[in-house]
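Lab notebook page, bench 4
Experiment: in silico fold of construct C2
Operator: M.H.
Input chain length: 254 residues
Purpose: comparison with the prior construct
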Amino acid sequence: MADGLSSFWGPVTSTDWCEKNYVYSSYVAELFNTISNVPGILLALIGLINALRQRFEKRFSVLHISNMILAIGSMLYHATLQHVQRQGDETPMVWEILLYIYILYSPDWHYRSTMPTFLFLYGAAFAIIHALFRFGIGFKVHYIILCLLCIPRMYKYYIHTADVSAKRLAKLYVGTIILGSLCWLFDRLFCEKVSTWYLNPQGHALWHIIMSFNSYFANTFLMFCRAQQRGWNPKVVHLMGCFPYVKIEKPKTQ
């Protein structure tokens, strides 16, 4: 939303959200939508440390790093509301979901080199096309289709997981994506009404925070499932009795 101080970055050239622009600083267009990405960076960092410390496969380190890159891209986008920074937010979204597709489907893929090669080329081609052309609803439809491709495999992992704590992670993943989507829709559909309120609930910022936990729950559940496939005796343990992470016991030969 327009209003506030003068802009260091110039006129808005991308989607404007339901937060007043440049209220607190001429360098940050949407303060709450910017800083709400910090939890995503911190949670991804925690996941990365756990993956490295227990020597999980590199795919999970890359996954956590991609979460951090996505959060940083989102921060830059909401701080500037420029089209180039928006591309720096949306392109990593596609790369990240392609990585999820690889992690979900690769264990049963017989031709190991074909899937990563195809996904890499697909991601590179998308980045080039996305840099050259502007996408509106087309990007959203494309991204939703990629997300839908993950659902059958996630469901398969869920029904083949007997561990109650791991199943709870999957349920938290579903719950947070529903709650986050409601916040996103509320911010988009009722912006005109919300803008007249004394206190803006900052639905898009809440979406960022909730989806940060959503990614962490998804990553942790996938780490558990992969460790189970590898015979690493995974367990979901809780830091300070509330924060879940996966602890594994590899055979001595590994």
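Observations: The two ends are 55 Å apart (CA to CA). The chain has a mean pLDDT of 91.
Next step: discuss at group meeting.
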